[in-house]
Amino acid sequence: MNKTDMLLPYRGRLLGLVIGIVLAILIITVGFGPTLLIVTLAALGFLVGMWRDGKLDIDGWFQFFTRRR
Questions:
Q1: What is the pTM of this model?
Q2: According to the model, what pLDDT value does residue 23 have?
């Protein structure tokens, strides 16, 4: 069994750890405001990329955010 197979069950936790470390480094080095802008633009770019690939259900998002409770 290689290391990749051993780490596969923990991929979500490892990804969260890496994202947390990157965000912490960004906040420490450039500040909260620029980090927030970087994260927002990265998320927007990710969503646009998903939309261009045909993997984003825009109607589903609109229904989720406009539904009555």
A1: 0.70
A2: 94
